Amino acid sequence: MLVGQSHVAEAILPYVEMFDAGLSPEGRPAGVFLLLGPTGTGKTRTVEALAESIHYSPRHILRIDCGEYQMDHEVAKLVGAPPGYLGHRETQPLLSQARVNSVASENSALSILLFDEIEKAAPSMVRILLGILDRGILRLGDNNLVNLERTIIFLTSNLGSQRMQEELGTSMGFSGTNSSEKKETEYKVLKSIGIAAAKKKFSPEFMNRIDSSIVYCPLDKNALSQILDLQLEGIQEHLDRRQGARSFDLDVTKKFKEFLIEKGTSPAYGARELKRTIQKYILQPLAGVIISGRIPPGALVKMDLKNDEKILIRIQDDELAA
Fold it and tell me: In angstroms, rounded to a whole number, what is the distance separating the alpha carbons of residues 83 and 80?
């Protein structure tokens, strides 16, 4: 599930449906998307949500961290070293046909490729991508070909993010629920900034091979609250799996939720820090109480905040300060 970015699914799903119907164009990937916007707004989560939808697992993604390919010679790790070069046999290409096929599943033949932070990639890697986006074929170092027609490719980037924050103000999206009209205006501004930054970075040939450039908006308080609720549901499922018969029900008060959102979100990083915040303020305090054996199986455990700083854990009528 992707929260706060309803326009994203509208842009991507038609390409998945065309693939499922056998109507994707020949000689190129089934879809190519450039995801732009501030960090922590859901770009990578979009790719994971699609993998969950068509493969029933967020791990069915072939992810390439472009930060690892900032120098031209490092691109050999992606396609393999050519014959005659030192380490030719030892350098297995990351983008082999076998690896691409491994992220498909019996539920769907569509493989998902994610090129994360594409703006950091070396020029030679961008040239390789240009060929992939144009013909749907990758030639490896040993001259073997990889067919990428059954792939959907995502390129994520933070290009223009700083300018977006400067233009719209750091309070954007965090002061409350925005009206539909205001959101539409903000989105138009963000989109123009993001696409202008991408066009400045990449050649017209590269940009013309992208099916859709999608810009992500900063998350408002409603979206952040929904994200927190989803993550807390995940924590309950985690407790049930790991504790088994000794599991208990976790209840987090509204005041404590507001504390978690304040600590785990920001205009600069969006919701990126929320998982670590939950780990620090929920899982770590709970760990000590679980180890002490003070939580009976099936108990209701409430977590609250006292004096805006002290974490309280209530086990039925027993109150503990963490």
Answer: 9
CA dihedral 224, 229, 235, 238 (to 10 degrees): -120
User: Scanning the structure block, which residue is given the tokens 């927190």?
Assistant: 228
> What HEC string does the chain produce?
CCCCCHHHHHHHHHHHHHHHCCCCCCCCCCEEEEEECCCCCCHHHHHHHHHHHHHCCCCCCEEEEHHHCCCHHHHHHHHCCCCCCCCCCCCCCCCCHHHHHHCCCCCCCCEEEEEECHHHCCHHHHHHHHHHHHHCEEECCCCCEEECCCEEEEEEECCCHHHHHHHHCCCCCCCCCCCHHHHHHHHHHHHHHHHHHHHHHCCHHHHHCCCEEEECCCCCHHHHHHHHHHHHHHHHHHHHHHHHHHCCEEEECHHHHHHHHHHHCECCCECCCHHHHHHHHHHHHHHHHHHHCCCCCCCEEEEEEECCCEEEEEECCEEEEC
* Whether pTM exceeds 0.85: no
247-304 pLDDT, tens digit each: 999 999 999 999 999 998 877 677 888 889 999 999 999 998 999 888 989 999 999 9
- pLDDT tens digit string along 64-95? 999 999 988 888 888 876 655 555 555 678 89
Interatomic CA distance for residues 255 and 319, integer angstroms: 17
Considering the chain, what is the average pLDDT of its residues? Answer: 87
| pLDDT profile of the chain (322 residues), mean per 10 | 79 95 93 91 91 94 94 83 56 86 96 96 92 91 90 94 75 51 79 93 94 88 89 94 92 93 82 89 92 90 83 73 56
224's tokens: 């952040």
Structure tokens at 275: 């998982």
In contact, 36 and 194? CB cutoff 8 Å: yes
Q: What's the distance, CA 277 to chain centroid?
A: 18
